[in-house]
Amino acid sequence: MSLDKKKALGKGLSALLNDSDSVKAQSNYQRETGSTNNSNAGNALGSVNEIRIAEIEINPFQPRTDFDEQALIELAESIKLQGLIQPITVRRVNSHSYQLISGERRLRASKRAGLNTIPAYVRTANDQQMLEMALIENIQRENLNAMEVALSFQRMIDECSLKQEELGERVSKNRSTVTNYLRLLKLPPSIQASIRDGDISMGHARALINITDPVKQVHLHQQILQQGLSVRKVEEMVRALQNGPEKKESNKPAPVPFQLQKIQDDLASKFSSKVKLKVGNKGSGSIEIPFLSQEDLGRILEMLDW
Question: Where in this protein does the record put region Disordered (predicted)?
C-alpha cells in the first residue's frame, strides 16, 4: 500500500465518505428542481443518487452476520412512513451494477418496505477500503457481537497487512482492546459460539482466556452456563486454578507437648528471650536461644556460666 493511501485510510470512515462541496451542490440542485435521474449510467461518482435495489450486490466484506429481525421490521415501517433518511454507500462495479460498501441494514429494511430504488452515495473504493469502511461503519453505528469484531479485526490484519497499532488507529481503539478481541479467537469453538450468541459476556470470555488448558476452559464455561456465574466469581475461580491447590499442612512442625511447652516457657522467662525447643520423633532435639546483639549474647553466656 502506498504512503498516501495509508494516510487516507488512517483518517477513518469520515475522511473516506466525506462529501465534497460539489456533491452537496448537486444534491441541493436535485431537490430544488425535482430532478431524479434514475439512469444508473448517469450516476456520478461521489454524488447522491437513486439506485435500483435490484442492481446492488451485498458487500462480501460485511462483518455483520446477524441482523435483529424485529429491528428490521421496525426500520422498514419507519421507511414506509418517512422514507430513508440516511443514504447507503455503494461503489460502482459497472454501468448497471453496484456493490454495497455500508448500510446493509438500511438496504434490507428498504427491500422489506417495498422500495424499488434507494438513495446512495456512489464512491470509489478498493477491496481493502471496503473492508475497513464496512467494519468501521458497523462498529460506530450498531455494535457487532464480540466474535464478529474479533473476526473482522483478524481479517483486517491478514488481508490489509495491518499491525495491531495501525488497526487500533483505524477503529479508534487502543492496542490492549484490539488484543483482547483477537485473543477470543484462541478460545475453543463452543466458547466462541456462546460469546456470539450472548450466552456469556466479554468479561466472562476475558477471564476464561487466562486459563491455558482448553479442557479446563470448557469445564469452567459449562459451569458458567449451568450455574449462571458472575464475572467476578469466574475471575476468582480462574485465580484459584492458576495458583494451584493449597500447600498441605504436613510440613508444619508438630505441636509441642504440654510438658515441653512448660520447659520452653520457663527457659524463655529465665533468659528473657524467646526460646525455641525442638524435639524429634526419637526424643532428640535442640534448644534455640536467639540474641539481639553482642551485649545480649554476653548476658546469656554469663547466665550459662560460660
Answer: 24-44
* Global pTM exceeds 0.70: no
Distance CA 279, CA 260 (A): 9
* pLDDT tens profile 165-222: 888 888 788 888 889 999 998 898 889 889 988 899 999 999 999 998 888 999 999 9
Exposure of 244 by Cβ count < 10 A (0-12 exposed, 13-18 middle, 19+ buried)? exposed
Which of the following is catalytic: 74, 77, 104, 148? 104
How would DSSP label each residue in 132-149?
Answer: HHHHHHHHHHSPPPHHHH
Tell me: do 15 and 114 sit in the same domain: yes
Task: Provide the 8-state DSSP code for 39.
Answer: -
Task: Tell me what the mean pLDDT of segment 266-287 comes to.
Answer: 75
Q: For residue 166, indicate whether it is catalytic.
A: no
Q: State which amino acid sits at residue 172.
A: S
Q: Which of 115, 55, 49 is nearest to 82 (CA)?
A: 115
Is there a single domain that holds both residue 37 and residue 61?
yes
CA distance 102 to 16: 12
User: Where are the strands (E) in the chain, listed by range?
Assistant: 48-52, 56-57, 88-94, 97-102, 117-123, 276-279, 285-288
Q: Can you give the pLDDT at residue 61?
A: 65
114 and 10 in a single domain? The answer is: yes
DSSP state of 258: H
